[in-house]
Amino acid sequence: MTARSTMPGPDGVRLAGPAAIRPDQNRIVRVGFIPLLDIAVLVAAEEQGFAAREGLSLQLIRDVSWANIRDRLAFHQFDVAHMLAPMAVASCVGLGSNPSPTLAPFVLGRGGNAITLSVGLYRDMQALAGLGGTEDALTNARALAQVIAARREAGQRPLVFAMTYPFSSHNYEFRYFMAAAGIDPDRDVTMTVVPPPLTADAMAAGAIDGFCVNAPWNMIAVERGVGRVVAVKADIWPAAPEKVLGVRPDWAESQPETLSRLIVALDAAARWCDVPENRPTLAAMLAEPGYVGGSPALIGSLLTDRFLVDPDGTLRDIPNYLTFHREAANFPWISEALWLFSQMARWGQAPLTPQAIERAASAYRPDLYRQALAGSSTPLPLADRKVEGSPVAIEIETTAGPMRLPAAPFLDGRAFEPDRIVDYVAGFPVTHPTSGSGRHDLL
């Protein structure tokens, strides 16, 4: 149960105490989602009764593309949405074709992404760079750079790589992976957009040579014999936020007690999802056709950190491949929003101005998170920012005392200090900052 609060946020949004909803009421909340494993917290909240306990009924509505999610939330077809973490930041900065303001008061989890290349491309990397199949992500990226250089020398077409949305962790992680090896994603390859459920089909059809997407679509490509995983999210940034609860400011302001109860329900569901003994039940729920669909065994394998990375049967154990609650996984750190914005600036999607930085920071709402969960057993961080990508463990202060967060270095070893964002962006060897032409804003 949450504590009653009427403290307003920076934009006037405030959360009332949950007692405003009578126990006999069952308020419907329409939730848009894409079929990916990181809808787990939303599904568990509805299926395991955490939403009902807060007087809510979640109407989970499946969609196929992130552009649809953005537009249907903006046009009030959804109340809230399963949303890419950078989408909320981009909306507040005014990027994209329909930048309706969106708040992120809750992170739905971490992990789940992977970069998959076609088997033919990976075999070329093995032949040229002598890969044995167990190399780390940076070694794989450098092997990819060798193949790209060889193809250019031979006059072959540029490789085509897909991500799911211009303002997505998939776009930024794929670019980060390539740039760490000296590949310029805007000059050396062609980047395109493919919706998550279509990525494996696009690769099987030969339309793309690689993609970055969340689970289970990478492993599905491997099981179909067309894809080879060369990096996962944990290789690029282990603590990266992945999806958030996207909320329109007008809905948050008009439904403060509903939002408060929703955050309480999601917090309980996230805690349940992190319990290993609950993972088989979670896998079965996600495998239902109305949610993600597919094989419960495949989903169960991913939820227990076992990842098939090559059609030859090579497996990789990835500890905490998907994290739903522990280590403050649901807390919307403003420093994480600013890191996402740093990548928008790095790749010419947005100007790196003080005004844009301020708007980017306003997308994540730790104040709403704290208001909803005040008085609960969940440790609430006392600060809104921290150093991201620390190569060593750090300790943060919470309402329940100190919390130790493990080391979470970026692939290239550069840590991000949110107060030095300009220096951080300028320090990348491969970067294309502009005055904000919006050249990635076509969707």
Shape: globular
Radius of gyration (CA) equals 21 Å
Roughly what is the average pLDDT, rounded to an integer? 92
Number of helices: 18
Give the proportion of residues in helices. Answer: 25-40%
Structural class based on helices, strands and sheet pairing:
alpha/beta
| Portion in strands | 15-25%
- Biggest sheet strand order reads 2-1-3-10-4-13
Residue runs with pLDDT of under 50 for 5 or more positions:
1-10, 16-20, 435-443
Q: Find the count of extended strands (DSSP E, 2+ residues).
A: 15
Largest sheet: 6 strands, mixed
End-to-end C-alpha gap: 40 Å
Task: Give a structural overview.
The chain has 443 residues and is an alpha/beta fold. It is 36% helix and 17% strand. The protein contains 18 helices and 15 strands. The strands form 4 sheets. It has a 6-stranded mixed beta sheet. Residues 1-10, 16-20 and 435-443 have low confidence and may be disordered.
